[in-house]
Design goal:
Elements: E1 2-4, E2 9-11, H1 19-27, E3 35-36, H2 41-49, H3 67-76, H4 89-96, H5 98-103, E4 105-110, H6 113-124, H7 133-136, H8 140-147, H9 150-153, E5 154-155, E6 158-159, E7 163-166, H10 170-180, H11 209-218, H12 220-226
Helix pairs in contact: 1-2
Length: 230
Amino acid sequence: MIVSHKHKFIFIKTAKTAGTSFEIALSKYCGPDDIITPISPADEKIRGELGCRGPQNHLAPRSDYGLMDRLNLLFRKREKRLYYNHMPAFMVKELIGDDIWSSYYKFCFERNPWDKVLSLYYWKNKTEPRPPVSEYLESADIGILKKRGIRCYAIDGKAAMDRVCKFENLKDELKLLQERFELPGPIEMPFAKGSYRKDKRHYRDVLTAAEAERIGEIFKDEIELMGYEF
């Protein structure tokens, strides 16, 4: 998640939408006062090697620490985070205030749910034997994916973004964002969280009718919002 005071935008990070790669790419253009949340150590290494800004301005001030926060700092060396990865829009709004929220350009990425579920399925099940997709659809992973979908960028049940970019149109979306924020040069996406998917078949050739229907039920809000079709 990034709040850029320099360019006056708020990026809400969803799941399985190339969010980490995009986050790294965006951090290149951030200023010292911008909020950048941490990503995994491996991805932070990529960000550092590319010379981009790392996590900054995301920690809570010591004045916000309660007893447990102080104990965690003392014994676990764990600082309290004010902003964090995949943070939902309503919490960001509460922290930055109505003035900034209403005046900054807010955006995120969304992806065809049938494709997104398969991407997660192969990433979480990197080796054989893999569970049946039908079984995986009832796992906690799918609940988390739903939480980091429209629930992440909606407030009071409605999408709260100025733009929900389509993952499928990534190249065109990046160009539009680059032009809107007047960023120098094209936004270059690094390779982060590479795919473990060997099976490159289209989701229509992988999912059964029952599996496709179940995904449609789970992600009906995203499908309706973005006009996705199986």
